[in-house]
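hi! just following up on the protien thing from before. the input was this:
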Amino acid sequence: MEDLARKCLILFSKNDMIVAYGHSHTTQKEGTRYHMIEKIFKLRENQTTIKTEIVAGLTTFMTMAYIIALNPNLLTNFDSKSTLWSGVFMATCIASAIGMFCMAFIANKPFCLAPGMGLNSFFAVVVGNIVTLTGMTYLASFQTALIVILIEGIVFVLLSVFNVREKIVESIPLGIRLGISPAIGLMLMNIGLGSNVSIFAAGNNFTTPYFVMRDFFGALTPAVLRNDMGAEGYATMVLSVATMFIGLFVIVAMAKKGIKGSVLFGMLVASIVYWAGSFI
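and the predicted 3d structure came back as:
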């Protein structure tokens, strides 16, 4: 009995008690790892579990991973073959990773940090205006805008240190502050519905892209649209639209049922549907 007791290690989690039988060396390692994670992230204090955090982390990553490609596209004017695009791509990944590690291990908050849609759009507009006003090359204008952003960042840090930033935020009307998140969501919805497909089809000599709202839902005669786009382009559009709404339906239905990870499962279903449809 004493030998059995030595081989039995009781691990406590938030919701239940797990009794692990086996070699004490292995279970001691697992217990040490759990207590180390508990010490760093204070899971019990924050009323969460390792499983919950892993599912939430994967869901958050999948919902925001689009920025990895979209950010360099916006900031380089969709020049994906240039070295500038590759540099922005790497900078987006590295900056996001540093921000999230700091948020996790210093602030201990479950927040993901990455370049925002509003900021990169503003940056692209600034670069475009510099090109127009000065006649500089896009690369030179990009570098100039980076200097402007650097100065802005220094000013922002000073405002934060002296608690001026908080006063500025509090001076903004509450309605505007509450409307920022829904507004970003509406902008993303507009991007998804308005330019989800963007197919440069053979039917119009690859000059004009086709979009979801304008062409798929606006096409009164699908046969005419199919002739304009070509069979391959039309099939790609239909598959893309079907995938989008199937994934959205799964997310909404699972969320209504209270299933955790509904966004992650919806994206997984949409990926499977598109992959399977591409072989049909």
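The radius of gyration is 25 Å.
Residues 1-26 have pLDDT under 50 and may be disordered.
cheers
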